[in-house]
Structures are given as structure tokens and as C-alpha cells.
Design goal:
72% of the residues lie in helices and 0% in strands. The chain is mainly α. The mean pLDDT is 86.
Length: 53
């Protein structure tokens, strides 16, 4: 979108391994992460729509 500033994010290899191990031991946590991400994205989208109107 116009006027947005890109954000550079980083992750370490240790973080990746921790995430993979968490998913292997507790696969339900992956769905919780996805659900939280979707809720956040929808909230941002709806907020952006409200600001346009």
C-alpha cells in the first residue's frame, strides 16, 4: 500500500529449530499460531477498511 514502510524481520537458526521441535511435540500449537495470525491479519484489514470510509 502507498505510504507503508517495509519492516525487516530476522530469525535465527536456533529459533527455527525450536519452532520445528515445538510443532513436532505439540502439533496443536501450529494451529493456534495460524489462528492468531489470521485473527491479527483480519483485524488489520478491517481497521484499514474503516479508516478509508
Amino acid at each position: 500500500m502507498k505510504g507503508e514502510v517495509p519492516i525487516k524481520m530476522g530469525i535465527t537458526l536456533a529459533d527455527v529449530f525450536d519452532l520445528i521441535n515445538e510443532i513436532r511435540h505439540h502439533p496443536e500449537s501450529l494451529f493456534q499460531m495460524i489462528r492468531a495470525n489470521v485473527q491479527e491479519a483480519v483485524g488489520q484489514y478491517l481497521s484499514a477498511l474503516r479508516m478509508r470510509n
